[in-house]
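Quick start: read one record
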Amino acid sequence: MLLRYLHASTDHFSVAPCLRAENFLTNDTAAGLAQGPAEAHKAYGVPGSQILFVVQSNERNFFDQRWLEY
């Protein structure tokens, strides 16, 4: 799901001809990965609190961070 979204919304995949949407496997781990911060937020117990993601300029791990954000 993430790769399909990023493939459609960025040009980062044009560097290799094998990076086509039909070659991407199904991957539904985003919900499980996002569940951790969601559970921490719930355990914090403060209504209206928010989760803050701090991202550095020129971050090389942007795909994982965007995955959690979306």
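The longest helix spans residues 30-44.
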